[in-house]
């Protein structure tokens, strides 16, 4: 069952962008790991901002899934997995984004009666 609608998902996206922006200072890492966090914060913010006007919500979901997976595996792809703080931060954000993605109703079926959901 998909529990999160479009408005709630938008709010969560903005919160995740804030977490990615503030995360390096709170988690205590700098350098390119922090630059990746800021880059993904900007990408998520821009996609969330463009969704109501230019991007349909189901396409938003299709864009967000690979971003979440990339954030999750980035410490190993970018070779900074030995940095415990940055690695754990990116894994946490990736798992959070994947969890939100799984719970979001990207097709808009949440408010419909069961016989209309086909």
Strand residue content: under 5%
Structure summary, number of beta strands: 0
Task: Please report the distance between the alpha carbons of the first and last residues.
Answer: 14 Å
Please tell me what the overall shape is: elongated
As residue ranges, the low-confidence spans are none
Total discrete domains: 1
What class would the helix/strand composition place it in? mainly alpha
Short summary:
The protein is mostly helical and 118 residues long.
What does this 3D model show about the protein?
The protein has 4 helices and no strands. It has 118 residues and is mostly helical. The chain has one domain. It is elongated. The two termini are 14 Å apart. The mean pLDDT is 92.
Short descriptors:
118 residues, mainly alpha, elongated
Question: What are the SSEs and their pairings?
Answer:
Blueprint: H1 6-27, H2 32-50, H3 57-77, H4 84-103
């Amino acid at each position: 069952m998909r529990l999160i609608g479009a408005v709630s998902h938008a709010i969560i996206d903005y919160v995740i962008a804030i977490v990615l922006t503030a995360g390096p200072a709170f988690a205590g890492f700098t350098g390119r790991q922090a630059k990746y966090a800021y880059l993904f914060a900007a990408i998520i913010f821009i996609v969330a901002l463009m969704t109501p006007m230019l991007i349909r919500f189901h396409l938003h979901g299709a864009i967000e899934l690979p971003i979440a997976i990339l954030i999750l595996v980035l410490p190993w792809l970018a070779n900074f997995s030995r940095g415990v703080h940055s690695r754990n931060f990116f894994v946490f954000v990736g798992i959070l984004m994947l969890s939100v993605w799984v719970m979001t109703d990207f097709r808009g079926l949440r408010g419909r009666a069961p016989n209309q959901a086909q």
